[in-house]
Amino acid sequence: MKKMTAILMVMTVVLSAMTGCSPQPVENNDVGKEEENKIVMYTNAEFAPFEYFEGENIVGADVDIANEIAKDLGKELIVEHTDFDGIIPAIKSGKAHIGAAAMTITEARQEEVDFSIGYVTSIQNIIYKNDAELTTMEQLIGKKIGVQLGTTGDLKIDDAINLEDGALYNSGAELKTYSSAIEAAQDLLAGRVDAVVTDQLPAEQIVVNNPELGTVEFGDISESYGIAVKKGNKELLDSINKTLTRLLEEGKIEEYIANHSN
Amino acid sequence: MELTDKLNIIIEEFTRSFTKTFIVEGRYKLFITGIKNTITIAFFATIIGIIIGLFVAIIRYSSKNNRKLFLLDKICSIYVSVIRGTPVLVQLLIMYYTVFVNMDNTIIVGIVTFGVNSGAYVAEIARAGIESVDKGQMEAGLSLGLNRRQAMFFIILPQAVKNILPALGNEFIALLKETSVVGSIPLIDLTKAGDIVRSRTYEAFFPLYSVAVCYLILVLGLGALQKKLERRLSYSDRN
Question: For residue B174, is pLDDT > 80?
Fold first, then answer.
């Protein structure tokens, strides 16, 4: 017993020390001195048309945009794939310079990172099997809903189910989180969830590739995607905003999205 | 001055992280669900593993003297090879996406996967335990007029069990940790609970360390229980 108490006490002290350590800001914003001419982008490449794998390369509208950003900075772009909810921690820890992953600008996220201007507006969609259409929140009572962990779709359904004034509170509805919307859609096909909630354009891509599925707009809250950078990195943010403004004026962003949509 | 200031900041940060991780939106409930699921899967998987493992071990032990068991023995041997030769995560994904493709009760899929996985390892433990029982015991049983099956069941197995129990305890504890990959399918175990909280707080340290401490407490606690069990079992030993 004594040994266990001792170990527990040591763990507690170590834990407090580590928590004390983590919020300290890393002073230099870059990933490493020897990589000053590179800009590292983290994304979750399971979200066509914004980012997806083509063979072993990551392509998509966000990648095209990031390439322009890198060009304007005179740096080389490195794209890394990770889980969606790993992107913001990576930016905070300095592992990534920018996060471009069709990431909706939200208040909670703005407390952790700085966002560029919005470059795409989107809305949540719901994906269903064509022989069991589910298109409204009320129809989700008692149903199983699949989402990608950490996305605004996830938060929306989570709030609906777990908050007391949520539309699905105590309704027997169940939230299932997956590492990608595509995985959730696969379980939708297998019958393990009844619906998937994710962003509009990726939902439409999923449906194009899976004729047994259909999708419609879900709810009416419009969202804006932004590119995330580490808090306080004004220089990088200004450059990104300049590039984005230019691309928006030239209509390039719609072009990129169209190029990557079937 | 500086030291107490630093200490205050550490305590503040600790409290802030603690609140964000556990209190806000009742996130502690996620951890409780996670712990419940982890223990449930580990427990039932151990039981299934023991059943399968004992079965396989008895077959493999008995087939040495029994031609009729040859095919069954070969099947068991393949089963053990395949399970020990592939990572449990791959087995889990195969179970979820092919074998049980229409089953949506992920806990059952988890229990079956880890039960089948554990069975292959328990089989080796059980076989060693059975073989460690003195050969004379089987001869004595036979000379008393029991047939092989009766001798196995009434004489050898009870003695083997005493040897096997500590190893089985280890298996349960090992399973507790191995089940941490089960979050790859939509199942909220302790590790996945940490992941979900991480995705809400955007903080990595606190959820991850809390999850690690939870596992540590579980493992150390069960380890202590197991030591007690071993001590009581050894009362009857003469040396």
Answer: yes
